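Progress against Task 2.4 (sequence-to-structure conversion) is shown through the following example record, which the project officer requested during the mid-term review.
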Amino acid sequence: MLHIRMHASFFLCLRAAGLCVALALLGVPAATATTHAAQSRAAGNQTALLDGMSFVLRNEATNKEDRVIFRGGKFLSEDCARYGFAESPYWVRTEGGRIHFLAEIESPTHGKMLWKGSVSGDSLEASYLWVKERWYWTIRREYRLRGVRQK
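Structure tokens generated for the chain above:
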């Protein structure tokens, strides 16, 4: 189970293909989660705000380059795809001229990643938490990335 610290109003209930990421991960009470989930559904799908965009990012810790793509309501990290992480639905919200996104991607062999970030103009700042549970230990690492829109 992924544990991440986030602002409580950030994507309070995520639903896609029958998957619901419980807000217990964020420490949000169930009643609050239900209220915000209803508000999110009422606001409609905003993924079109990022669809068709791609960004070239640099990992601050490893200095490795990656390209992330938003298309058809799905998020893809090209570097992560090499390790079996499939494209996955993403969610967006806007606040103060920034577009915030959240995506959870999964690999059959390399665990799960929870990506979050924000876009302002042609700049993207993101982070992801990678968790790979094994019977003898759990890998848990967080990375930060920055990049620009690829045109």
